[in-house]
Amino acid sequence: MRERIVRVASGQGFWGDWQEAPKLQVRTGPIDYLMLDYLAEITMSILQKQRERDPAAGYARDFVPLIAGLTPELLGRGIRVVSNAGGVNPDGCRRALFEAVEEIPTSRPLRVAVVSGDDLMDRLDSLLQEGHELRNMETGEPLSAIRERVQSANAYIGAAPIIEALRMEADVVITGRSTDTALTYAPLIHEHGWAADDWDRIAAGVVAGHINECGAQATGGNTLFDWRGVDLEAPGYPIIEMAADGSFTVTKHADLGGRVTWATVSEQLVYEMGDPVEYITPDCIADFSTIQLRDLGEDRVAISGVRGRERTGMLKVSIAYRDGWKATGSLVYAAPDALDKAIRADEILRARLARLGLRFDEVRTEFVGAGACSGRSPDTLPEAVRQGLPEVELRVGVRSADRTAVERFTRELAPLILAGPPSVTGFAAGRPRVQEIMAYWPALIDRDSVERNLEVEVSHA
Amino acid sequence: MNVRLERIAIARSGDKGDAANVGVIALIEEAWPILVREVTEARVSKHFAAVCKGRVDRFELPNLGALNFLLHESLGGGGTVSLMLDAQGKTFASSLLELEIDAPEEVVSLCDRVLTGELPGR
Description:
The structure holds two protein chains of two kinds. Chain A is of the alpha+beta class. Chain A folds into two domains: 5-118 and 156-312, no CATH class; 322-440, Alpha-Beta Plaits, CATH 3.30.70.1150. Chain A has 13 helices and 19 strands. Chain A has helices spanning 20-27, 43-53, 63-77, 90-102, 124-129, 160-167, 182-192, 199-212, 262-269, 338-355, 383-388, 403-410, 447-451; strands at 5-12, 33-36, 80-83, 111-116, 150-155, 172-174, 239-243, 248-251, 279-280, 285-287, 292-297, 300-304, 307-309, 314-334, 362-368, 391-400, 424-425, 435-446, 455-460. The longest helix of chain A is centred in the C-terminal third of the chain and has 18 residues, at 338-355. Chain A starts with a strand and ends with a strand. Chain B has one domain. Helices cover 25% and strands 28% of the residues of chain B. Chain B has four helices and six strands. Chain B has a four-stranded antiparallel β-sheet with strand order 2-3-5-4. Chain B is elongated and about 45 Å long. The relative contact order of chain B is 0.29.
C-alpha cells in the first residue's frame, strides 16, 4: 500500500494577495485542502471598524465571490477549504457566501462551518472583573489603562474547532482569529488522526503551516537567491504533502511559475522568526532548530525530524486600541540639487508647523531615493552620490493625540508647491489622509476562559 | 578576503511588533562557521545603528545554516503607530547583506558557483 499523503495548498498569504492564486491551486493539479489566510495583527481592528458602520460587514469580502465561483469545482474534486476570512463576523461571512452560491448550479448543497468564540470584545469587562488583567506582554501594563479605547480583542485559537468542523463534514470552514498556522495543521491532524498530545507531529504541522501562511514567499516571491531568474508572473503557491509520520514535502504545481528550493523554503522558515526553539502556538511549542531540510530538486523540498513540546496553558490575545492620529504626505524634487531642495522644503514646512504652535508626538522626515530605507541621515551619503541623485521624494509623517493638529498638517504640504523650493512635482494624489492609529496590545489569557466558549456550527446553503 | 555578506548568504526580514527580525542563511555548509564568526550581535547592532534603538539578540539554527537576529525597538513603534517608510523592516534583509565580512577565498568562490547555479548549494 502506498503511504497516504495529504495535500494542503496555500491560496492567500494576506488580505489583498493575488486573487488568481487560489483558483490556480484548485485547477492546475491535485490538492485535498485549500487554506486561505486573510488576517494580520492590524486586520481585525479594520474589520471591527467596518462592522461598526455595517453590522453585516467585518469579514474578508474577497473570500465570498472567490469561493462561490470555485464551489462547483471544490465539490466536484472533493477539495475542502479552511480560512480565517470570518474576521470579526464569521457568521456574516457565511451568510454572504450562501447568498452568492444561490445563483450557482452545484451537485449538492455546500456545507459551511462557522467557528466562533475567539472574539472577546463583548466579554472584555466581565473578563477584567473576573481578574484577567490582560497585561501587555511587552510593557507589563494592565489593560484597564486603555480599556475605553479598545477597538477589538481576539484570542488566537487553535486546531480543535476546525477539526470538529471537518468531522462534521464541512466543505468550507470559516473562522475568526484562528492562528495562521492552524489553517494548515488542523486538516493534517484531522486526516492523519494525530493525538492532541502528539507534540512532534503537530509541530511538523506547525512548520508546514509557517511555510504555507505567506503564500508565494515560500515559492520564490521575495527571494534573494537569483531573484532575476524566478518566473513570478503566474507563480504556483506552496503545497504541503504531509505523510502520517510528520515528514512532508513542500512543492507547487509543476505547470505554474515560481520555484521551490532549499533557498526559497529556508527564507520563509526564518521569516518573522523569534526564538526558533520556542515557536509557540495554541497546540504545541515547535522547535525550528530540529528541522531537517533536503532539496530533492524539481521544485521539491523534503522536511523531517521536527520536534515539539507540550502546549502552554495560555492563549495569546490580539488587542487593538485607538492611539491618536497620523498622516503622511510627500512631494518630489528634481535635479540639480534634488536632495538639497527637499531638505530646504522640509525646513520650511517644519518652521510653518512651529509657527502654528501645533504639537505632535512625532514628526518624521524621510528622503526617499536618498537612503530612507536604511534610516541613515542623507548627510552620510558620499558627495558624488548626493550630486548624482536625479530626484528625491520628501516624505513627512506626523503623529499626535490631537486630531486637529494632524488635519492642519495635511494642509501645509500643498503650499510648498508654489511657496517653496523649485523643481517640485508628485503632488497629484492630493492632500494626505488623516488616519486613526490602531495600536497593538498583545496579551495572554488562560486557555479555558476562551475555549469553553468556542462554538462550531455547520449548515448548508 | 573582504567581501559583502551577500557573497556567502541570503536573508529575509520582517516585523514582530516594534522589533524587526532578520534571518541570514549560509549558501553552503562551509559558510556557516563564517556567519557565526563574522555576523555578531555587536556588528549587526552597529550596522543598524540608525534604526535600532534597542538591543540585538542572535539565535543559531545550525540545522538550516542560519542565524536569526531580533532587532528590538527598530520600527518606530511598529504596526500602524510607525511613521517609517519601511515600518515592517522588509528591506532590512538586503541591507544586512551589504555588511562587509572577512571570508576565506575558497569559500567565497564555492559560493559564487552556487549563485551561478553551477553547484547545488545547501
